[in-house]
Amino acid sequence: MKKFLFITTLTPKSLLSPLRASLFDLYKDSLNSQSYSNWEALLIGEEEKKQGRIIFKKTDAVSKGDKLKVAYEYLLSLEVKPDYIIRLDDDDLISQYALEYAAKHEFDCCSDLYHTFYDIASGLISQQHRDWLPNTIIHKYEHAVAAYGDSGQPLFSQDHSQAWHRYYADKKIHFVPKKHPVYLRILSPTTITSKIDPLQSGKFESIDMNAYSAYLVGFGKWRNFNLRDFEGCYDQLVQAWEEFSGKTITPRKRSFLDLFR
């Protein structure tokens, strides 16, 4: 039976807003909801413990890059290596069927062809084709740990938008169906790439929603449709945002821009 290992670098507790904490709970729920049982998750952060299949590894490292080095050292220490490695951010959700589906196929990496985004403030979803592989793909172990490029760092620890599509260009990539993405990238004002100061995102009143809406424009056309593999998450996502913002989500509105007027 093939074994999968998730690797996650945790947001520092000092930057964990109530919304981000709620998303972290949903992230863990998505792991524990897997229909395929042979997996573990390695979470690199500020505490040392184990919760079921989830292993928390304590480190003084602060940056994501340094935390991924800790993950690499952990991999080297294992007597029995996993078959596959998956990086997953602590505010994103993995499909409950992703591992079951991947275990039935042979590949060097398994990936979404269309990057799938969920905006927590509107309840809308966008799928966008990009020229690089997303952050969360399923690497075959031998490729995940392979030294690549001038840095010589293991592939899994490198910038997904720069290195991964180049490395896998001559290898077997299995792209999953558009309606069944590997993972759902959750966009919120606490998303690092939104460039909203995390110290200002602890309270809804402190967030510049105009800046956030401008950030969302770059993710393609937002629509109201359900992805069946994530149906069990939607109510919790809506609840997390409404409790944080005090706003009611009305995802049936046709115009994305209407949500911010």
Topology:
Layout: E1 4-9, H1 18-32, E2 39-45, E3 49-51, E4 54-58, H2 64-77, E5 84-87, E6 93-94, H3 98-102, E7 109-112, E8 114-119, E9 124-129, E10 138-140, H4 141-144, E11 147-148, E12 153-154, H5 160-167, E13 173-176, E14 183-187, H6 209-216, H7 231-245
Parallel strand pairs: 1-2, 1-5, 2-4, 7-13, 8-14
Antiparallel strand pairs: 3-4, 5-10, 6-14, 7-10, 8-9, 11-12
Q: Please state the CA-atom Rg, rounded to the nearest Å.
A: 18 Å
In DSSP terms, counting alpha (H) and pi (I) runs of 4 or more, how many helices? 7
Q: Tell how many strands the DSSP assignment holds.
A: 14
**In terms of per-residue confidence, which ranges show pLDDT below 50 for 5 or more consecutive residues?**
252-261
Query: Considering DSSP H and I runs of 4 or more, what fraction of the residues is helical?
Result: 25-40%
Intertermini distance: 52 Å
What structural category arises from helix and sheet content?
alpha/beta
Q: Please report which band the strand proportion falls in: under 5%, 5-15%, 15-25%, 25-35%, 35-45% or over 45%.
A: 15-25%
Mean pLDDT: 92
CATH architectural arrangement: Alpha-Beta Complex
Major sheet size, sense and barrel closure: 8 strands, mixed
